[in-house]
Design brief:
This protein is an alpha/beta fold and 216 residues long. It has ten helices and six strands, in the order βαβαβαβαβαβααααα. The N and C termini lie far apart (34 Å).
């Protein structure tokens, strides 16, 4: 039996996806979360074999959720489920530690195969996704260099704060999502602005748009 945790902020989608998964005898959905803090709590208490995280979480960077889940449980297995297949989004998900990237418009059978692959410890990419992205990811895992990204100078926690800031989250909500104090968020925020050479949140959003980084 493969136990699963679903993380998506849309109840109707979770309900429909849960019913599809329940039709497979080897899957058991042991929890659902619509918010990051609930996902962290359920992952800790129920230890699912695979956490399925939607990339479309309202106001949150899904990669931030992935990184925090893995910080709390380093051996966790995470499948990102997305409505888009842009290379940057796939690369960010893999770099954050997701073991798979499936698409919401794939046939359900393919998504089930994605869950099985991630549960078995394999890396899964939807067939529509360029294999170049996977090769770049594997080169990074081997310590080889690739073209520098615009946020490569940020630490992992600074990148988390950056992704939440450009989505319009205030400091207190970021603190609650990441489990840190508002004062620590303010410190990370100052470091992000300094390292990226910008002076305000408006400039930060413009920076993200200029470099075609996800803003939703």
């Amino acid at each position: 039996m493969t136990t699963l945790l679903l993380v998506d902020d849309r109840e109707l989608f979770r309900e429909g996806f849960r019913l599809l998964l329940a039709a497979q005898p080897e899957f058991d959905v042991v929890g659902e979360a619509s918010a990051a803090h609930t996902a962290y709590e359920l992952a800790g208490t129920r230890s699912p074999n695979v956490v399925i995280v939607s990339s479309d979480l309202d106001g949150l960077g899904a990669t931030t959720v992935v990184r925090e889940l893995l910080r709390r449980q380093s051996d966790g297995k995470i499948l990102m489920l997305s409505s888009r297949s842009d290379d940057d989004g796939v690369h960010q998900a893999l770099a954050a530690g997701a073991r798979g990237f499936a698409l919401k418009h794939q046939p359900s059978g393919q998504v089930f195969d994605a869950v099985r692959a991630v549960a078995a410890g394999h890396v899964y990419l939807a067939p529509q996704i360029s294999q170049v992205v996977l090769q770049d990811h594997l080169r990074l895992r081997r310590g080889e260099t690739t073209q520098a990204g615009p946020c490569d100078g940020l630490s992992r926690r600074e990148r988390d704060v950056f992704e939440l800031l450009v989505r319009g989250n205030p400091n207190r909500r970021i603190a609650r999502i990441l489990g840190i104090s508002p004062k620590t968020v303010e410190t990370h925020r100052a470091h992000v602005l300094r390292k990226l050479g910008v002076h305000s949140i408006v400039d930060l959003i413009r920076f993200a748009a200029r470099h075609q980084l996800p803003l939703d």
